[in-house]
């Protein structure tokens, strides 16, 4: 038996600064306390830049530390604004149904779930059909599209 599924791709790892608790007043206060005259003690420009970077980044690391996280979701090409609106309505209906526990609310939520799924499937079908039709001469692109269909 052939294994037609491709292995899962690893999530993208993003490294960025976290400004979640950044306080501009405290940062400017701490940056004003840094002994900047140390930078002028070096003769070489490279050494001066290196010391400036170290002094500045030490203060910045205290106020906006570097965080590394995994990007869990990639943006879908098939989600249209209409589908996004349906998904938003579905989510609000789910919240309402959980709050009220009324059978009619659950029924309307389920109906909207099915509607969202069918719209997404239709959009995916159209997207992949367009991909294959636009690359009829390029067999490599067609096979890449087929592999994407087989491994969502």
| N-to-C order of helices and strands | EHHEHHH
- The total beta strand count reads 2
Q: How far is the N terminus from the C terminus?
A: 20 Å
What is the makeup of the main sheet? 2 strands, antiparallel
Task: Describe the global form.
Answer: flat
Low-confidence spans: pLDDT under 50, at least 5 residues? none
Q: Domains counted in the coordinates: how many?
A: 2
Arrangement of strands in the largest sheet: 1-2
Q: What structural class is derived from the secondary structure elements?
A: mainly alpha
Multimeric organization: single chain
Total number of helical segments?
5
Mean pLDDT equals 88
Strand content: 5-15%
Helix content: 55-70%
Please give the radius of gyration in angstroms.
27 Å
Description:
By secondary structure, this protein is mostly helical. It has two domains: 12-71, no CATH class; 81-150, no CATH class. It has helices at 24-32, 45-63, 81-100, 103-134, 139-150, and strands at 12-17, 66-71. Strands 1-2 form a two-stranded antiparallel sheet. Helix 1 (24-32) runs antiparallel to helix 2 (45-63) and helix 3 (81-100) runs antiparallel to helix 4.
Features:
single chain, 152 residues, mainly alpha, 8% strand, flat
Question: How do the helices and strands line up, and which of them pair or pack?
Answer:
Elements: E1 12-17, H1 24-32, H2 45-63, E2 66-71, H3 81-100, H4 103-134, H5 139-150
Antiparallel strand pairs: 1-2
Helix pairs in contact: 1-2, 3-4
